User: What shape does this take?
Amino acid sequence: MLKLLFIGDIVGRPGRDIVAERLPRLRSELGLDFVIANAENAAAGAGITGALAKSILESGVDAITLGDHVWDQRGWENEIGEMERVCRPANLPASNPGWDHLIIEARGFRVALFTVLGRQYMGLKADCPFLCADRMIEQLRAQADAIIVEIHAEATSEKQALGWHLDGRVTAVLGTHTHVPTADAVVLPQGTAYISDVGMTGPYASVLGREVKPVIAKFLDGMPRRFEVAEGDVRLSGALIEISASMARAEKIELLSVRK
Assistant: This one.
């Protein structure tokens, strides 16, 4: 049995700090073979930089995924191609720089992973996540023992539909982006682990990681404001998956929440 932890959206310095502080011990205590983290909000809540990606990887993360804020930080488009353990969403235009998938290995077991962006209520230009996932699975099937799919999307219906669409063809379909952990972790009938959202890693005394007062004010009067990253009630949130090495199917999935 292998254990994989997928850490939800790392938000700002509070999210980065709890990963650096708690992940080394979690790897040991839980016997983790693989750790994947979405870090698209790592830089002050929007985007990532090369320096931050390196620091997160040095904290014990094996691979970093990104989402719709992938290009928010100036100059990242020139750095991403040099980051061999960072991948952008696979259904962005092929002309976008960066890897569209990653393959990581532990104990002779290879895990391929990729992210697809949802298209409901999302701003970036992206191909159909269903057709992209089909294409990526065909490409990666012979290269890995297990495939992990992240769906970075707003609509729960789109996430659930992709989970059922891929059941039995991948080891896990894991939702991110909405920053609120959901209570629907399940192994689907054909052996695919699924959860609608693994939650965020960052400050929960907030509105999706941002200071509460300016967000409320924006809802009240519609005026633009700067939303600073909050600092209270910092948690590491993710999905812990047990994988059968012989069958490459998920045996168990549960939501993991660790307070600072």
Observations:
- Residues 4 and 34 are 5 Å apart (CA to CA).
- DSSP finds six helices and 13 strands in the chain.
- The chain has a mean pLDDT of 96.
- The radius of gyration is 17 Å.
